[in-house]
Amino acid sequence: MLSRRQVLVATAAVLAGRTPAQAAPLGLVDDWTAAPLGHHGVPPGWRPYETPGGRPRYDFTVVEDGGRRALRMRSESEHSTIAHELKVDLAATPMLTWSWRIVSFPAGADLRERATSDATGHLVVIWPRFPEMLRSRLLCYVWEPRAPADAVFTSKKTSTVTFIVLRSGTAGAGAWVEERRDVAADYRRVYGGDPPNPAALALSIDTNDTSSSAESLFGPIVFGPR
Q1: Which 3 state secondary structure label does DSSP give 10?
Q2: pLDDT per position in the chain (226 positions), as tens?
Q3: Angle ∠(6,221,203) on CA atoms, nearest 5
Q4: What whole-number distance in Å separates Cα of residue 82 and Cα of residue 43?
Q5: The whole model's pTM is what?
Q6: Exposure string over 179-188, b if 16+ CB within 10 A, otherwise e
Q7: What are the Cα distances from residue 5, in Å, to 42, 161, 179?
Q8: How far apart are CA 12 and CA 77, in angstroms?
Q9: What count of Cα atoms within 13 Å lies in the side-chain half-sphere of residue 166?
Q10: For the chain, which residues make up each domain, given as ranges?
Q11: How far is it, in rounded angstroms, from Cα 142 to Cα 165?
């Protein structure tokens, strides 16, 4: 069994753009190396995750940016979401770590209002429950231009989605930023009780309500220990 130090070293290596042999079983979701640079559309290992009225274009491209491999997500007057199956033990690896660079936000977007419920690239952890449209639980980590940081609120359009605002405003946008969230703790905060293991992780970008455009990039995404 790998030690905590080995887990942390492997996780750090993935975030730095390296993929040691130990990384995959330690909670690597994706580091965008399965597709060649320039790959456009839904990346390998992911599937379309359509939303009503989304008109998805999947304008996603695997790129090199700032010395790291990344998925560039662009959107214009549409809503594109992709999902990746998870096999993660939250009791052992509850910390979700990723890097992202927000290039632009949808003009006029405010997730707290139904009419302007758009967001630049964001990350979603999914616990499906039957019937899925009514009982599933989705924690959605966002960088929101208007809602305050650390705000937690339910989507006005989809009651199964809870937004957690990690960063607010536009300060810092344009630069790569590292995030580290305790998904188990966030689940308890929102829903109470110990979380089951999530079934999927999604990446989404949404501009259809504001008829605007947005762009974001995501680097490696990894689950690891506290």
Answers
A1: helix
A2: 223 333 233 333 333 444 333 334 469 999 999 999 999 999 999 999 888 788 999 999 999 999 999 999 999 999 999 999 999 999 999 999 999 999 999 999 999 999 999 999 999 999 999 888 789 999 999 999 999 999 999 999 999 999 999 999 999 999 999 999 999 999 999 999 999 999 999 999 999 999 999 999 999 999 999 9
A3: 160
A4: 9
A5: 0.88
A6: eebebbebbe
A7: 34, 35, 20
A8: 36
A9: 26
A10: 28-211
A11: 5
The total number of residues shown for the chain amounts to 226
114 contacts 197 by C-beta, under 8 angstroms: no
For 28-211, the fitting CATH number among 1.10.260, 2.60.120, 2.40.50, 1.20.120 is: 2.60.120
33-71-49-214 Cα dihedral, nearest 10 degrees: 180
Scanning the chain, the segments in alpha helix (DSSP H) are 4-15, 132-135, 183-191
CA distance 124 to 223: 13
- Tokens 């979401």 — which residue? 81
The DSSP code sequence of 107-158 is TT--TTSGGG--EEEEEEEEE--SSHHHH-EEEEEEEESSSPTT-EEE-SS-
- CA separation for the pair 66, 68 (Å, rounded): 6
Closest listed residue to residue 154, CA positions, set 144, 164, 166: 164
Strand partners, 165: 142
What is the amino acid identity at position 210? T
